Amino acid sequence: MSGILFEDIFNVKDMDPEGKKFDRVSRLHCESESFKMDLILDINSWLYPMELGDKFRLVLATTLHEDGTAGKLDVL
Fold first, then answer.
1. Domain limits of the chain?
2. pTM for the full model?
3. Could you report the per-residue pLDDT of 32-47, keeping only the tens digit for each?
4. How many CB atoms lie within 10 A of CB 18?
5. Phi/psi of residue 17, each to 5°?
6. Cα Rg, the chain, nearest whole Å
7. For 50-64, how does the pLDDT look when each residue is reduced to its tens digit (9 = 90+)?
8. For the domain 4-61, what is the CATH code?
9. Cβ distance 69 to 12 under 8 Å?
10. E-state strands within the chain
11. What count of Cα atoms within 13 Å lies in the side-chain half-sphere of residue 45?
12. In sequence order, what are the beta bridge partners of 71?
C-alpha cells in the first residue's frame, strides 16, 4: 500500500491502569516492537476486545487506496 506514514506491531503492556472510565472503552498502554516507542490508545472494547499480552499492527496512511490516490468523497 502506498502512502504509509508509520507501521509497527504493538504489544499490550497494561490496560486501564487508572480504572475504567466508561463501560465500552479500555485504555491500552502499549510498546512497539521495532521502535520501542510507547502508545496510549483508547479502544471500544466491545467492538475490538483486547487482553494483556495481545499484539496488534498499527498503520497510519494518507489513503486506504492501494495505488496511493486520495479517492473521491461521495456525498449523497
1. 4-61
2. 0.82
3. 999 999 999 999 999 9
4. 6
5. -65, -25
6. 15
7. 999 999 999 999 888
8. 2.40.50.140
9. no
10. 4-15, 25-32, 38-44, 55-61
11. 16
12. none
